[in-house]
Write a structure and sequence with these properties.
Blueprint lengths: L6 H19 L6 H16 L31 E3 L7 E8 L11 H11 L9 E8 L2 H9 L7 E3 L4 H8 L5 E4 L6 E7 L7 E2 L2 E2 L1 H9 L5 E4 L5 H14 L10 H12 L3 E3 L2 H11 L4 E5 H6 L6 E9 L4 E3 L5 H15 L26 H13 L6 E8 L5 H16 L7 E7 L3 E9 L2 H12 L9 H18 L4 E8 L9 H11 L3 E6 L4 H7 L6 E4 L4 H12 L1
Parallel strand pairs: 2-3, 2-4, 9-10, 9-11, 14-15, 14-17, 17-18, 18-19
Antiparallel strand pairs: 1-3, 4-13, 5-13, 6-11, 6-12, 7-8, 15-16
Helix pairs in contact: 2-15, 2-16, 4-5, 5-12, 6-8, 7-12, 13-14, 13-18
């Protein structure tokens, strides 16, 4: 007699058992609709959050704040090379952009400064000339000077737009050298999409803008308040729309055209590195902006190629009003020294596109800051934002971190306008809905601040549970508000040790398609970084003291 339970039968039984288990856990997630259904099942069948919503109105600031009011302490951006002033030395401090003041291939200015200082050049006043390097992004350095928070002796941004903007706003920087590290900006594009943005192997901005606007080319670029490449790209697009007529660059017609263009842009990152990491993680972007020096040093993007655009990025060197006659003598000697070291720039990735000429020049320098404001008004493409802040209130946050978290959320709220909708979720081992998603009216803002003020720390950390609950809130809000773009902001200082595992929600959150911006408080978190890469989100590491600025930066680029 042949047994019914032969190998074939056992295989069928195992398949049936697997089918039953999958059915019990919900439908297979393979599109946004099934992701939304699975998220709802997780919330109400597994997580079961608390709904202790705040009902107390707090006192609020009725005036909207500007990002410069949230600038972090300068100590967050230390001097990475150099010595202090002494009776024997005349030390000149230079604000230096990140691609020149980092490590290895990004350390060109550090190597230059060291070689210059080793020469022990004597000045006319008898002191020894010395250079100190402070690493700081071009846009942030300009913001410090515009806010009069701190003015160094010299400034070397990635391109000349920042120097022109400073001059237009009363900071009288003087050019010492127009070119110290020759470079260009460009669009890094998938090779099989090259024809969508070029004509005769040259970037065709009108073609690019058309394809981005109609949604057939997914383009990412960087925050023009922070990034030299992002600012260059913004002005390039406006200049193209206006057909080179500066008087028309900010006209209502151009503003409307730019808003249409923005509708087709899925991702604006804080930095090129954030955008590159997000693009590599998802593969969604057909093109993204990047400096050529970064491009030649990048790995893992063999499917892409580089097409230059806009003005050149030649790292000019400026003397600021803080530089006295002796310090300007040091800068002149340093500029002369740099000019003799241009053969070595290629070792760092610079100087390989010397034949490229700038595609435009800005004569009316007041247009630069005005273009940033236009971007701020139109960056969401006319779509309002619905966002939920997800706040870690586990025991590791402690008293000091909680105070800084509350300060950051309260100050950031002043950057959000009433056209957007905001909610709040807090979590430890349990998740609580502190505030449902509603338009950010004066009353909702008062309720939001009141909800923030009552947060207390304690317990374990269930980050994934909280993200799923917040995603469900947004998806539910979207049902009646289809025009809103959905965003999550997650703020955490610890590792997840309770609730759902990341593997259990990764696919679902990815198909849900909600960008998750994560801020890691005084930690490096692979988990938070993984959450951010699911749908073109930003991952940012922050000290607690600079959290207001970090969140404000995200809000400035998203809301």
């Amino acid at each position: 007699m042949i047994s019914l339970f032969n190998t074939h039968s056992w295989y069928l039984l195992l398949l049936m058992a697997a089918f039953v288990m999958l059915s019990a856990c919900g439908k297979k997630v393979d599109d946004p609709a099934s992701a939304a259904e699975h998220i709802q099942e997780l919330v109400f069948d597994k997580i079961r959050p608390d709904f202790d919503e705040n009902t107390q109105l707090a006192n609020i600031n009725l005036q909207r704040s500007e990002l410069v009011s949230l600038l972090p302490d300068l100590s967050e951006y230390p001097i990475v090379y150099g010595e202090r002033d002494t009776a024997q030395t005349e030390v000149v401090e230079i604000f230096t952009s990140s691609e020149k003041a980092g490590r290895g291939r990004d350390g060109f200015y550090i190597e230059l400064a060291d070689a210059f200082n080793q020469q022990r050049v004597t000045l006319s006043n008898g002191k020894r000339a010395s250079i100190a390097i402070r690493k700081i992004a071009s846009g942030l350095g300009a913001q410090f000077m515009l806010a009069n928070r701190y003015v160094p002796d010299a400034f070397s941004p990635s391109n000349a737009l920042w120097g022109k903007m400073l001059q237009a706003n009363g900071v009288n920087v003087d050019i010492v050298a127009e070119r110290t590290a020759p470079n260009t900006a460009g669009v890094v594009v998938k090779r099989d999409r090259l024809d969508d943005i070029t004509t005769n192997n040259q970037l065709d901005l009108e073609k690019l803008v058309t394809n981005v606007s109609n949604g057939t080319f997914a383009m990412g670029y960087t925050n023009p308040f922070q990034s030299s490449t992002g600012l260059n790209f913004l002005l390039t697009v406006l200049h193209t729309f206006a057909k080179g007529n500066e008087q028309e660059m900010l006209s209502p017609a151009i503003a409307s055209a730019f808003e249409t263009f923005q509708t087709g842009v899925p991702f604006v990152a804080q930095t090129t590195l954030q955008m590159r990491d997000a693009a590599q993680g998802s593969g969604v972007l057909d093109g993204l902006v990047m400096e050529h020096q970064t491009w030649v040093n990048v790995r893992g993007m063999n499917d892409y190629t580089f097409v230059p655009f806009g003005i050149r990025h030649d790292s000019p060197l400026y003397a600021t009003p803080e530089a006295d006659a002796n310090e300007r003598e040091v800068l002149s000697l340093f500029a002369e020294f740099i000019s003799k070291q241009q053969k070595s720039v290629s070792n760092f990735g610079f100087g390989r596109t010397l034949d490229y000429e700038s595609a435009y020049e800005i004569e009316d320098v007041s247009l630069i800051a005005d273009a940033q404001q236009l971007w701020k008004q139109k960056k969401s493409g006319g779509r309002p934002i619905a966002a939920v802040f997800v706040a870690d209130v586990s025991g590791s946050m402690g008293e000091e971190r909680m105070l800084n978290l509350k300060k950051a959320l309260t100050e950031s709220a002043d950057l959000i306008n009433e056209s957007n909708a905001i909610g709040l979720v807090s979590y430890h081992e349990r998740v609580n809905v502190d505030l449902s998603v509603r338009p950010f009216t004066v009353q909702q803002k008062a309720l939001f601040i009141g909800a923030v003020q009552r947060l207390t720390a304690g317990g374990k950390t269930a980050t994934n549970d909280a993200v799923v609950v917040a995603a469900n809130m947004l998806l539910d809000f979207k049902k009646a508000n289809t025009d809103h773009k959905l965003i999550l902001f997650v703020l955490s200082d610890g590792k997840t040790n309770r609730g759902l595992e990341f593997d259990a929600v990764q696919r679902t959150l990815e198909f849900a398609g909600i960008p998750i911006h994560t801020i890691a408080y005084e930690i490096s978190s692979e988990h938070l970084q993984a959450l951010s890469t699911l749908s073109e989100g930003a991952y940012i590491e922050s000290s607690t003291s600079s959290a207001s600025y970090r969140i404000g930066n995200l809000l400035n680029s998203e809301m």
